[in-house]
């Protein structure tokens, strides 16, 4: 039992860190451009697909990563220029529909190009085995995923809090009209935030690729979780996304893995097998509803 | 012309299954039934979205719950369709009330997200709850009985039952929209603060509309359960809610027949594309994108059908 809890806690932190990568971009796009981007999860998927294809052809996970990141960001940059920038001024309903259309296009698009079967994406050979962690074996690749997430989160912190672009972004999430009035190149700022957000989503998709199946629709459920994170944390707030991602990662992973066992302690095995998983998957939504009930703009609202 | 249009359409709708049968296209009776059922749900969503201004991203929850009421009732040996409809209405009214009370505390994007989250709660409940089939869904053993010597086990008869429900819900919605209630709802959408200041309790009006829409969607859900003889958790998934929004947008948000037109357009599109292309959703996506960018008010705005009920818009906007 102790082993299991230890492993699940690590898994949940790792999941939370990856969720943060997806949600931080989403919350900035949301906060700065006031744009609801349902297609964000598709870039998580596209990143993983490109990495899987390149890694499959070359045999190198790292080459896949190196190709997929700029490729996804470039696709985002292009689409922002062609389509998405026309949506910033429209109402949320139109944004939801247009980006929902992109989910359909991307999901069937990858099936069309790479077939309906999931693609294999192998973890780098150096991280294939387990490591000994406080006397317990744990996947070294999962540790790597966590390390990457933490490093990127720290880099993001410095980027947003210590650089000029970061200052623009913070200001944009806080009060866009004022930023415009100060003469900042808004279009460039939007394009950078958008592409960078998608880059982070793609990074999460590539890192999680070896742990989940690389297949069409893999971004859809992640997208919803990322939205839960954004809403819990407060739209436009990166620290909020960090806290939200940890909450969702921990509650979701532990809820799914431990609740069924908890129920087994005082319910019949049959009833526990029925109620446990159901309640486990519902936990994060209950948390989100509770947060919105008491703090209708999330934990750390960015807008003034 | 305008006055004759609707009765003519209704007569045509009544005769369609016979026409389909006569021309050897029985298959399309099922397609038509699906269109009518989805038209009900889409119309109910259009009611709260187009007239009440509530962008619910979780409307599929009521649709799915209706289907599960059918399946669970039949699982426990209930065979009366009337009892199932009553149960579906009660369950969805209650759930609609609870979701509405929670969700209507929030605004704008938060409303979109919280309706989605609340719907996902029910989705995961049915996915995880193995007693009622879990993620495999739950079968309906036989189509429920209508009684009074009426039989709706045949496809034609069932189509007519669905048509009757659709007509009933359209009459209800039309009456509501033309009444004080509908006018107040419209006023609240256009300027909630002003409506509140005049003395309309905005929240209560919106909540009432939300519950009415939930019940109509629930009845439609019970019909889809009876039609497919199956309830699947997929009916409650957020992507289903997305498709319902797509239908309303395609048809025309805030146009009275927007829901009907949108459901028909979407399902026919799906029918045609899926027979010709293996990866047809990509084309649905492209068409949707085109509609949203070029005619964001949907098909109705192009042909201006049902504009009469939209007069408030011109004055208000």
From TrEMBL, chain A:
Q: Which GO terms describe its molecular function?
A: transmembrane transporter activity
Membrane-related topology note: Multi-pass membrane protein
Single Gene Ontology BP annotation: amino acid transport
CDD domains, per this entry?
TM_PBP1_LivH_like (cd06582)
Among its keywords, does the record have Cell membrane?
yes
Q: What is its main location?
A: membrane
Q: Which GO terms describe its cellular component?
A: plasma membrane
Compartment annotation? Cell membrane
| Record-linked InterPro entries | ABC_transp_permease, BCAA_transport_permease
- Give me the segments passing through the membrane: 12-31, 38-55, 61-84, 96-114, 141-160, 188-212, 224-251, 263-294
Keyword Transferase listed = no
Q: Which UniProt keywords apply?
A: Amino-acid transport, Cell membrane, Membrane, Transmembrane, Transmembrane helix, Transport
Q: Which residues form the signal peptide?
A: none
| Record family assignment | Belongs to the binding-protein-dependent transport system permease family. LivHM subfamily.
Q: What is this protein called?
A: ABC-type amino acid transport system, permease component protein
Organism annotation: Herbaspirillum seropedicae (strain SmR1)
TrEMBL record, chain B:
Q: Where in the cell is it found?
A: Cell membrane
- Keyword DNA-binding part of the UniProt annotation: no
- Family annotation (Pfam families): BPD_transp_2
Kindly list any coiled-coil regions of this protein. none
Name the InterPro entries for this protein.
ABC_transp_permease, LivM-like
User: Which keywords annotate this record?
Assistant: Cell membrane, Membrane, Transmembrane, Transmembrane helix
Q: Which GO terms describe its cellular component?
A: plasma membrane
CDD domains named in the record: TM_PBP1_LivM_like (cd06581)
The UniProt entry lists membrane topology as: Multi-pass membrane protein
Main localization (coarse): membrane
- Name the domain of life this protein comes from: Bacteria
User: What GO MF terms are annotated?
Assistant: branched-chain amino acid transmembrane transporter activity
Q: Where are the transmembrane segments?
A: 32-50, 57-76, 82-102, 109-126, 157-186, 207-231, 243-268, 280-299
Q: What is this protein called?
A: ABC-type amino acid transport system, permease component protein
């Amino acid at each position: 039992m102790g082993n299991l809890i230890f492993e699940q806690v690590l898994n949940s932190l790792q999941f939370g860190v990856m969720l943060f990568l997806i949600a931080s971009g989403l919350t900035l796009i949301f906060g700065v451009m006031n744009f609801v981007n349902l297609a964000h999860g598709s870039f998580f998927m596209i990143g993983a697909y490109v990495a899987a294809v390149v890694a499959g052809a070359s045999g190198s996970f790292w080459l896949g990563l190196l190709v997929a990141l700029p490729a996804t960001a470039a696709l985002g940059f292009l689409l922002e220029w062609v389509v998405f920038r026309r949506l910033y001024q429209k109402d949320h309903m139109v944004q939801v529909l247009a980006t929902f259309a992109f989910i359909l296009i991307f999901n069937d698009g990858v099936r069309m190009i790479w077939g309906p079967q999931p693609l294999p994406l192998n973890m780098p050979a150096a991280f294939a085995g387990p490591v000994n962690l406080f006397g317990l074996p744990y996947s070294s690749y999962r540790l790597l995923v966590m390390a990457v997430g933490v490093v990127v989160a720290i880099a993001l912190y410095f980027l947003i809090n210590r650089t000029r672009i970061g200052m623009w972004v913070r200001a944009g999430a806080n009060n866009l009209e004022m930023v415009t009035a100060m003469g900042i190149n808004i279009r460039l700022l939007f394009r950078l935030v958008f592409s960078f957000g998608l880059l982070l989503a793609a990074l999460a998709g590539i890192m999680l690729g070896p742990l989940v199946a690389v297949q069409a629709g893999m971004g859809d459920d992640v997208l919803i979780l990322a939205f839960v994170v954004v809403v819990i944390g407060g739209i436009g707030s990166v620290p909020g996304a960090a806290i939200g991602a940890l909450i969702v990662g921990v509650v979701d992973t532990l809820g799914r893995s431990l609740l069924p066992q908890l129920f087994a302690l005082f319910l019949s095995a049959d009833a526990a097998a029925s109620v446990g998983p159901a309640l486990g998957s519902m936990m994060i939504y209950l948390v989100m509803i509770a947060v919105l009930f008491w703090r209708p703009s999330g934990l750390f609202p960015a807008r003034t | 012309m305008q006055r004759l249009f609707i009765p003519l359409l209704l007569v045509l709708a009544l005769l369609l299954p016979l026409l389909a049968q006569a021309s050897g296209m029985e298959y399309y009776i099922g397609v038509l039934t699906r269109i009518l059922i989805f038209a009900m749900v889409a119309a109910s969503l259009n009611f709260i979205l187009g007239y009440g201004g509530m962008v619910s991203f979780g409307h599929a929850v009521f649709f799915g719950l209706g289907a599960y009421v059918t399946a669970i009732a039949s699982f426990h040996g209930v065979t009366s369709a009337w009892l199932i409809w009553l149960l579906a209405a009660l369950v969805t009214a209650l759930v609609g009330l609870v979701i509405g009370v929670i969700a209507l505390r929030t605004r704008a994007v938060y409303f979109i997200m919280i309706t989605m989250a609340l719907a996902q709660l029910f989705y995961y409940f049915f996915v995880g709850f193995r007693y009622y089939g879990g993620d495999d869904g739950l079968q309906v053993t036989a189509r429920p009985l209508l009684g009074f010597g009426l039989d709706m086990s045949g496809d034609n008869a069932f189509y007519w039952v669905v048509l009757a429900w659709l007509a009933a819900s359209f009459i209800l919605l039309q009456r509501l929209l033309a009444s004080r209630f509908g006018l107040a709802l419209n006023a609240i959408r256009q300027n909630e603060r002003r409506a509140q200041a005049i003395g309309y309790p905005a929240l209560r009006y919106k909540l009432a509309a939300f519950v009415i829409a939930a019940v109509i969607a629930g009845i439609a859900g019970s019909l889809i359960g009876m039609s497919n003889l199956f309830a699947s958790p997929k009916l409650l998934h957020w992507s289903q809610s997305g498709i319902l929004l797509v239908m309303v947008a395609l048809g025309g948000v805030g146009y009275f027949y927007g829901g009907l037109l949108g459901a028909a357009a979407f399902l026919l599109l799906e029918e045609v594309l899926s027979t010709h292309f293996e990866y047809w959703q990509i084309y649905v996506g492209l068409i949707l994108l085109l509609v949203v960018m070029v005619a964001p008010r949907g098909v109705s705005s192009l042909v201006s059908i049902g504009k009469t009920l939209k007069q408030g818009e011109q004055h208000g906007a």
